[in-house]
Amino acid sequence: MSPSLSLQHGSDAPRLPDVRVEANLSMVIFGGTGDLTRRKLLPAIYALSLEQRMPETFRIVAFGRRDYTQESFREEMTEEIRRFRREEGSEEHLQDFVSRIDYFKGELDKSESFVELEASLSNPDVYPQNRVFYLSTAPSFFEPITKELKKAKLTYKIGDPSWSRVVIEKPFGHDLESALKLNQDILRTLDESQVYRIDHYLGKETVQNILSFRFANTIFEPVFNNRFVDHIQVTASETVGMESGRGGYFDRAGALRDMMQNHLTQLLCLVTMEPPSNFSSDAVRNEKVKVLQSIRIPTIDEVRQNTVRAQYVAGQVDGENTPAYVNEDRVPGDSRTETFAAAKFFIDNWRWSGVPIFLRTGKRMATKQTSITVQFKQPPMQLFQTVQCENDICDLTESRPNLLTFRIQPDEGISLHFATKRPSMHMVVEDSSLDFGYRENYRKTLPEAYERLLMDVMRGDSTLFTRSDEVEAAWRVMDPILKAWQQRDRRIPLHFYSPGTWGPLASDELFDGHAGLWRNEDSLA
């Protein structure tokens, strides 16, 4: 995941070496005129170039269907980079960066376009022969593009003097069957080591910090097991609805496919996996796969008992009217697609047996929040009374469990809640906390997720990318839920919730028989 320490010339103290891409390369972005390219990919590569992490020679080719000229495309991308990176870097640096961007007009479904692309890229005086192909396209193009790349001899075999890598955006399949087929189709033309299935959540600094927090601190790892942990909950809530035309995509996907099957499942893996033997990509991913393979596959009865799906209705948020999901742009009026999904899972292994894992995600919720909360078991004896105080006025309350929370966004940090004696003549305790915040401790802006992930692709580090068996193992858990929901079983109702709330009350019932409730943003501080 990161380079080891090395001794620098003229110093006896070990120092971190610079992390940069050494090999010259060309990057081809399929879907080069799309939103992801403008908002994330090009600004991320520009940021890497500002930090002097890019190689001496690199070229970017945006592959698209629109009628741009070289000059008009570069001008538009210049404005986009200014927009998303604001005033970072000099005008000279920006113009040098944009001069490395070429526009290639082509059709994804025509072999001739790939033949023409190969003819352009084969000129080593212009394009470095190491190649990254980024598939920022609709999923239906993933397999045809990889097939055409091989057919046009744009990708190399393992062991060739130059290398080629293919980055694939989510969603990777829409169910288990499609994921298996997509893996089989892609691996007919590429080696697994050449495929980088990207999940931008894994590029977030605070997500990676979960591993360092667990495995670099002696005091915490020994209590990450079923002897001490009551339950774990993972939440990814958003306040947005279907703005910017996203309703067309989302109605085909739904909350479970869009967030739970990938992002939330990855967070679950990181907080529950066993320590890897080292931090090589395969060692880390092997442990994640073991967790996924240990998750109990839900039966139809368990889907009914342990999952909740819901859809937001019309309402008001901050005094403004918001439409119901079925009245959003590009959403059918009779849609039963879930905008909220919650589920309870169990990991049947030695460490986590009997510990419920709660996952929750939704649109149009109270706040934007991504967090993981580990709730520890209560002490075996309640020796102290617990109080909740406002100034000097204190009321007796129920004892509170210890909580460890990883705040992934927007206020990145880690907090630990524990009981301390309140200064008074009474032997009573109250809830206190230790809080680590990235903003307060690091003045430097956290790198964008795509900066880290693109850097890793170019350096050939696949640690933060999902392997084919990871994708398949995650789908084996989620597929029975999707199938049960699609049957429209009356015993698995579609609930409804008002915008600006934390979802349907039915999701609280997942905690029946367990201590605690969902930890919402106002209870994380």
General description of the model:
With 525 residues, the protein is of the alpha/beta class. Helix content is 32%, strand content 23%. It has helices spanning 35-50, 70-85, 91-98, 111-121, 142-151, 176-189, 205-215, 247-272, 281-294, 300-306, 438-441, 449-459, 468-486; strands spanning 6-7, 14-15, 25-30, 58-64, 101-105, 131-135, 164-168, 195-197, 229-237, 307-312, 315-317, 320-322, 340-346, 356-362, 369-376, 385-390, 393-397, 403-409, 413-421, 428-437, 494-497. The chain has an eleven-stranded mixed sheet. The radius of gyration is 25 Å and the shape is globular.
Number of domains: 2
CATH class of the largest domain: Alpha Beta
Give the total of beta strands.
21
The dominant shape is globular
The CATH superfamily of the largest domain appears as Dihydrodipicolinate Reductase, domain 2
Give me the secondary-structure topology:
Layout: E1 6-7, E2 14-15, E3 25-30, H1 35-50, E4 58-64, H2 70-85, H3 91-98, E5 101-105, H4 111-121, E6 131-135, H5 142-151, E7 164-168, H6 176-189, E8 195-197, H7 205-215, E9 229-237, H8 247-272, H9 281-294, H10 300-306, E10 307-312, E11 315-317, E12 320-322, E13 340-346, E14 356-362, E15 369-376, E16 385-390, E17 393-397, E18 403-409, E19 413-421, E20 428-437, H11 438-441, H12 449-459, H13 468-486, E21 494-497
Parallel strand pairs: 3-4, 3-6, 4-5, 6-7, 7-8, 9-14, 10-21, 16-20
Antiparallel strand pairs: 1-2, 9-15, 10-13, 11-12, 13-14, 15-18, 16-17, 18-19, 19-20
Helix pairs in contact: 1-2, 1-12, 5-6, 6-13, 8-9, 8-13, 9-13
